[in-house]
Design a protein that fits this description.
Helix content: 40-55%
Structural class: alpha/beta
Bound molecules: phosphoenolpyruvate, magnesium ion
Largest sheet: 8 strands, mixed
Number of helices: 34
Distance between the termini: 30 Å
């Protein structure tokens, strides 16, 4: 049987969303509910996919079906394409499975040509309306189908207005509209070397193809990547009989939400314009009126609309965003969909609808986007101020939030200026662990290089600081203390603002407002906690971050990156002494200095986490990260260390590695310097003993995690260093405190041999950052440079460092989890890479049965909700 590619609205319903797209399915559903919907048909998403499969042509089969349905539409409406008596005009609109507002294209008034315009003028007795519709159609067709610039059309309108000495579009007469039509056609011909198509069927087929094409325009591709929408979903196309809001004073058009999308207030919210077409409301040429005022202007239509709103909301059990048109006093519904809303509104609506008995708490949980919660946790820009500001460049939205401050170029400067009470934005080529304090005191971090898991991005998210990374348009001139972007120069001390949620950078100060957490938020999160199967831990390296994470609901720490503690105060000195040590004695002396400092750090974290589990990961980065790079600093360090500059330079050059991320790091450091593992173990165990002693009601059991393990023998070797040290300390203290030694699974070999590794490892934590890096063979710091080309070539759709690659890396995780549990059935399994805070990745982690995810403090609420949604979805599946 031949595939059915076209459906009349009365052949479908809301359940056919995948095939008919959101708009088509909802138009069908509204028709089914007996609501006034202009007739039409939907060309399916499968037709769009076939269009691409066939090399971007609409096959004869599909064209034939479209023509067949056009005839059906003509029968239903009693109108005909190109007819001199009763011409049919249609709109052609995109409609994907997931709503993608404004991402794809729409064409209105299709079917007009000279003859039809004349007929409409006569029939409606409104010549101005006929030619206004005609000129709008030419504009839209030229823009959407032929890619001509909109600007020239606007200029032509301005020229005609200027000739006539008028200001307002409404003052344009029927004759002016006719002039515009002619001028537009002339421009079309001169630009394209062909006449504007007069045959409505040609117009329609070209428009349908343009909508298919718009599925792959740049902004649609970007939107899909941001919102996790696969490119193989395709878009449907809706062809619908036009009804006119611009045919006179008893006509109008508007958009409305069943509840306030900004606050969630349960009150109809929207605007309308009389004698106007849809785009006028959106374009802001005329100021629309509040929806309440429709009651006075068109009372019957208003009452009917209010009734439909309430029906739709009850039917869809969600806040609706609707478009309507009134033609000669009669109401028509053109669209309904679940309305986009702010996080605050989302929570209020979810809670209110539960209280109203409209939805269950499970349905409420599914109604809020986890990612959205983020905006409730960070300060935000004042909306109006943001709209008025100019974007100077745009890059990766690495860590959300609103940052506004004066430019500084180094971490030291950041600290100095912040000490003086100034607000600063740290602008760096890229950041390194040394910058951490400077980052912590900055309002935001802007980097020229680096992707979503670059140091700056990871650390900023950890601190809840806003960060925009990879702003490649910026030309840095650190020496002069300035940078140039898009022709403008910004100097040290100039004000800029960065929006970590959009990646936009602004060349001025923009006012911010602190975030507010309402009561609905707490109530909602309690529902999520009751429902989720996965535990949520946090990645935190300081008591402050740990405390913040607990406030956000973290149930433990899944990853303490101990190296992050090495950069504060005296610790960096001691670790540098360790690195330059020339013999065992010097090495031990340095480690002896470090141990009590580490112990104090761990005590702080245990105190902050009270009795919650804490996984401490041993030293991981290559040691070169701890030594300075610029000659001034090297000189200073040599003095401090009491060695010659030449000697220090030698040490530094010995540390040089061609590929440090695959070099001397992780547990490899302990194999070559066993003292490090011993020192860290002593610090962990003594800290836990001390804190347990202070709080006899607590029962802390340290979890020690060894990084970058690739083989059982390697794990055994390092584990022995740990257990010998720990057992000796416990024995001496006469303590029976339990502790656990586990490993990260971040080298593919460890995943492949997980059953063996599990003989020694008591738990696994998947380090999905490194596991992704090593599975793809992509450097996590450099992939941002070439991934955009992969998106453009449709090889990959997402950054695998941000969203877990379920097919490849995910397969390794699932396999390793199963292998591990074969050896050790009750083994605790978690994820502590960046993916631990990403909703799509969390859903996968839930599906494969891990125990917890661990993410930066500011993503904890997101992970809690995503985990609840994962449980609900995976139960259904
Ligand atoms: C990882 O590799 O996923 C991980 C958590 O460790 P790090 O990011 O510190 O390498
Ligand atoms: Mg790692």
């Amino acid at each position: 049987m031949e595939t059915k590619y076209v459906y009349l609205f009365n052949e479908g319903d809301a359940n056919m969303r995948n095939l008919l797209g959101g708009k088509g399915a909802n138009l069908a559903e509204m028709s089914k509910l007996g609501m006034p919907v202009p007739n039409g048909f939907t060309i399916t998403t499968e037709a769009c996919n076939k269009y691409y499969d066939d090399g971007e042509v609409i096959s004869d089969e599909i064209q034939a079906q479209i023509m067949e349905y056009l005839e059906k539409l003509e029968e239903e409406t009693g109108k005909k394409f190109g007819d001199q008596e009763n011409p049919l005009l249609v709109s052609v609109r995109s409609g994907a499975r997931a709503s993608m507002p404004g991402m794809m294209d729409t064409i209105l008034n299709l079917g007009i040509n000279d003859v039809v315009a004349n007929t409409i003028a006569e029939k409606s007795g409104n010549e101005r309306f006929a030619y206004d519709s005609y000129r709008r159609f030419i504009q839209m067709f030229a823009d959407v189908v032929k890619g001509l610039s909109k600007k020239r059309f606007e200029e032509i309108i301005d020229e005609v207005k200027a000739e006539r000495g008028i200001k307002d579009d409404l003052e344009l007469t029927a004759d002016d509209m006719k002039t515009l039509v002619e001028k537009f056609k002339e421009f079309y011909r001169s630009e394209l070397g062909e006449d504007f198509p007069t045959d409505p069927k040609t117009q329609m087929m070209e428009a349908i193809e343009a909508v298919f094409r718009s599925w792959n325009n740049e902004r649609a591709i970007y939107y899909r990547r941001m919102n996790d929408i696969p490119s193989n979903w395709g878009t449907a196309v809706n062809v619908q009989m036009m009804v006119f809001g611009n045919m006179g004073e008893d006509c109008g058009t508007g958009v409305a939400f069943t509840r306030n999308p900004a606050t969630g207030e349960n009150k109809l919210y929207g605007e309308f314009l009389m004698n106007a077409q849809g785009e006028d409301v959106v374009a802001g040429v005329r100021t629309p009126k509040k929806i309440d005022q429709l009651k006075e202007v068109s009372p019957t239509a208003y009452d009917q609309f209010v009734e439909i709103c309430s029906k739709l909301e009850n039917h869809y059990k969600n806040m609706q965003d609707m478009e309507f048109t009134i033609e000669n006093g009669k109401l028509f519904m053109l669209q309904t969909r679940n309305g986009k809303r702010t996080a605050q509104a989302a929570l209020k609506i979810a809670c209110d609808m539960v209280d109203e008995g409209l939805i269950s708490t499970d349905e409420a949980l599914m109604m809020v986007e986890p990612q959205q919660l983020d905006s409730l946790l960070h300060p935000t820009f004042a909306k109006e101020a943001l709209e008025a500001a100019e974007v100077i460049t745009s890059a990766l939205p690495a860590s959300p939030g609103a940052g506004c401050g004066q430019i500084v170029f180094t971490a030291e400067e950041a600290k100095e200026e912040a000490d003086k009470g100034k607000k600063v934005i740290l602008v760096r080529l890229e950041t390194s662990p040394e910058d951490i304090e400077g980052m912590a005191v900055s309002q935001g971090i802007l980097t020229v290089r680096g992707g979503m898991t670059s140091h700056a991005a990871v650390v900023a998210r950890g601190m809840g600081a806003c960060c925009v990374s990879g702003a490649g348009d910026i030309e840095m001139n650190e020496e002069e203390g300035s940078f140039k972007v898009n022709g403008k120069t910004f100097k040290r001390g100039d004000w800029i603002s960065i929006d970590g949620s959009t990646g936009n950078v602004y060349g001025e100060a923009i006012e911010t407002v602190p975030a507010e957490i309402s009561g609905d938020f707490e109530r909602f999160m309690e529902w999520a906690d009751k429902r989720r199967r996965l535990k949520v831990r946090t990645n935190a390296d300081t008591p402050k971050d740990a405390k913040q994470a607990v406030d956000f609901g973290a149930e433990g720490i899944g990853l303490v990156r101990t190296e992050h503690m090495f950069f504060e105060g005296d610790k960096i000195k001691a670790i540098r002494e360790m690195i330059v040590a020339k013999n065992d004695d010097q090495m031990q002396a340095a480690l002896d200095k470090l141990e009590p400092m580490q112990q104090k750090d761990f005590e702080g974290i245990y105190e902050a986490m009270e009795e919650r589990p804490v996984t401490i990961r041993y030293l991981d980065p290559p040691l070169h990260e701890f030594v300075p790079t610029n000659p001034e600093d090297i000189k200073e360090l040599a003095n401090e260390m009491n060695i010659s500059e030449a000697e220090l330079n030698q040490v530094i050059s010995n540390l040089h590695e061609v590929n440090p991320m695959m070099g001397h790091r992780g547990s490899r450091l302990d194999v070559s310097n066993p003292g490090i593992a011993k020192m860290q173990t002593a610090a962990v165990i003594k800290a836990a003993l001390n804190v347990n002693k202070k709080h006899p009601e607590w029962n802390i059991e340290p979890e020690i995690m060894l990084p970058l393990i690739g083989d059982l023998a390697e794990l055994k070797y390092v584990k022995k260093l740990v257990t010998e040290t720990a057992d000796a300390i416990l024995k001496e203290a006469g303590s029976d405190m339990k502790y656990h030694v586990g490993t990260m699974i971040e080298v593919p070999r460890a995943a492949l041999l997980a059953d063996e590794i599990a003989e020694e490892a008591e738990f696994f934590s998947f380090g999905t950052n490194d596991l992704t890096q090593l599975t793809f063979g992509f450097s996590r710091d450099d992939a941002g440079k070439f991934l955009p080309q992969y998106y453009a070539a449709k090889i990959y759709e997402n950054d695998p460092f941000a969203r877990l690659d379920q097919n490849g890396v995910g397969k390794l995780i699932e396999m390793a989890a199963n292998l591990g549990r074969k050896t050790r059935p009750d083994m605790k399994l978690g994820v502590c890479g960046e993916h631990g805070g990403d909703p799509a990745s969390i859903e996968f982690v839930d599906k494969v049965g891990l125990n917890y995810v661990s993410c930066s403090p500011f993503r904890v609420p997101i992970a809690r909700l995503a985990a609840a949604q994962a449980t609900i979805k995976n139960e259904k599946a």
